[in-house]
Amino acid sequence: MILLHHLRVGRSLFTVWLLEELGLDYELKIYVRNEQGRAQADLREVHPLGKSPVIEDGDLLLTESGAITSYLLDHYDTDNVLAPPRAEVKERAIFTQWLHYSEGSAFAPRIMKRLLMANPDQRPALITGFANGEVDLQLGYINDFLGDKPFLLGDRLQGPDFGMSYIMEMAGRFGQLEPYPALQAYLSRMTARPAFKRACERAGETERAG
Amino acid sequence: MILLHHLRVGRSLFTVWLLEELGLDYELKIYVRNEQGRAQADLREVHPLGKSPVIEDGDLLLTESGAITSYLLDHYDTDNVLAPPRAEVKERAIFTQWLHYSEGSAFAPRIMKRLLMANPDQRPALITGFANGEVDLQLGYINDFLGDKPFLLGDRLQGPDFGMSYIMEMAGRFGQLEPYPALQAYLSRMTARPAFKRACERAGETERAG
After folding, report:
1. How confident is residue B109, by pLDDT bands cut at 50, 70 and 90?
2. Fewer beta carbons below 10 Å: N end or C end of chain B?
3. What is the pLDDT of residues B38-92, one digit of tens each?
4. Which residue of A has its CA nearest to B139?
5. Whole-number pLDDT of residue A2
6. How many CA atoms, within 13 angstroms, populate the side-chain half-sphere of residue A33?
7. Is A61 an 8 Å CB contact of chain B?
8. Where are the domains of chain B?
9. C-alpha distance from B190 to closest chain A C-alpha (Å)
10. Predicted interface score ipTM higher than 0.90
11. Domain A89-193's class?
12. Angle in degrees, 0-180, between the axes of helices B160-173 and B89-103, rounded to the nearest 10
């Protein structure tokens, strides 16, 4: 059975959601952060970086949300419900681009912004300017790409929606989605899904459900 | 023919290197940064984020280094020289994990560190502490994982070595590799490869060759 190491509160809830959408049996091991918001020794024993999500499946121990999504879909979504078949090379390339995007380009300015907001007395102009500029740029880009589609890649839920929902949740928590009603509606659609609600219940984080 | 939009100086040199290792024909379009180190309007016309690398292959326009690596290998490395076959599910999962890692977990503290170093008069304790702690954590982790292997994943060059070399180059430029002779030697091995040298020549960046 799949074991998911889940650090609350953070991005791994979106991996719980993926497991729920896939209808898989899994065990959830829950960790809590220290006062500084970091993982503690218990999670660092699982993986030296103390990051989450981490999954174990047989003798495979895997980190990085996007890689976990890829693995779970390759291995357990054999009917290609949540991903285009690999034979559809270009669709799959765009799918993979968005899988990387949520953890790559979109995330660095988010963590900067979070650190800046946690320490309002120290906001160096260069970092603040970079983070604010990037946040606007990224949200505008996502908003344009989403357009009026119900899901990021079209008319059905796919792998990149999981990571993107985390980015949207973070942005929403900081009030950054107000200029983007389409992104707010997207996040609401994702968090209102029955599988997302089940994930929140399972993780004991029902306050995050839509 | 593949068209690579290459912003100098930055990470896309490592995509040029990948194209050289694959022995592919490609066209290189070179862009330069403005005084603030950002992409200019010419690159934003190609892609709204103004990021690089961006590749075009037929009617596919693709961003995100890790996704570009995945696509190029899926499509052009059909003998699996630079990646384990997809049928080797666990090896491929670990390969994908490291492909994500370079752009995800490893990159966010790097860009913070770069911004902090560009502005030595303003170094807020929280961000500096986070960035320094993460840099040490990440480099120690990579060093332990690499061990005495010649390449990140074993005895041959594979997809994740391209993104990891960029992380190592950035770390080396800031003097952060000094405690890690194995990482220094790894970077030297990568940048001494004939294909890397060809990439530097093609991009007009011979100063980056080992």
Report:
1. confident
2. N
3. 899 999 999 999 999 999 999 999 999 999 999 999 999 999 999 999 999 999 9
4. A49
5. 98
6. 11
7. no
8. 2-82+195-208, 89-193
9. 23
10. yes
11. mainly alpha
12. 30
Using one digit for the tens of pLDDT, what is the confidence trace for A169-195?
999 998 999 999 999 999 999 999 999
C-beta atoms of A130 and B115 within 8 A: yes
Q: B2-82+195-208 and B89-193 share one CATH topology? A: no
Q: Which token pair is A182? A: 């389409």
Instruction: Order across the sheet with B2-8: list the strands.
Output: B26-32, B2-8, B54-57, B60-63
Half-sphere exposure of B136 (CA within 13 A, CB side): 5
Cβ within 8 Å, pair B89-A105 = no
With a CB-CB cutoff of 8 Å, which residues 74-133 of chain B face chain A?
74-75, 86, 89-90, 92-94, 96-97, 99-101, 103-105, 107-108, 111-112, 115-116, 118-119, 122-127, 130
Min CA distance, A123 vs chain B (Å)?
A: 7
The topology (CATH level 3) of A2-82+195-208 is: Glutaredoxin (3.40.30)
In chain A, what residues touch B96 (CB-CB under 8 Å)? 64, 66-67, 70-71
A9 touches chain B (CB under 8 A): no
